[in-house]
Write a structure and sequence with these properties.
By secondary structure, this protein is mainly α. Helix content is 78%, strand content 0%. The protein has helices at 2-10, 14-41, 52-82. 8% of the residues are buried. The mean pLDDT is 86.
């Protein structure tokens, strides 16, 4: 099952790879924006809204998932490149 997923990721067409990269970029920017928005609301001078910490947590989780997905894609690509005949 895992080998099928690895080969599916590594065997994407060029258009699918471009869409995949744009989606990952979009979600990474959303995560980064959420982190920055949460940090903006955590000002030490005034009142802190209750949603500031959860926004930072959600942004961090989304950013971590995107980075982990990129790492898994790189590992899958290298695995297929080294073992091309094991479908």
């Amino acid at each position: 099952m895992i080998k099928r997923i690895i080969y599916a990721i590594a065997g994407m067409s060029q258009k699918a790879s471009i869409v995949y990269c744009w989606l990952l970029t979009f979600f990474f920017l959303i995560g980064l924006g959420s982190i920055l928005t949460g940090l903006f609301f955590l000002n030490p001078d005034g009142d802190q809204p209750a949603f500031a910490i959860p926004i930072i947590i959600v942004g961090s989780v989304v950013s971590f998932i995107v980075v982990a997905t990129i790492a898994c894609t790189t590992i899958a690509s290298n695995y297929v490149r080294r073992n091309p005949k094991q479908k």
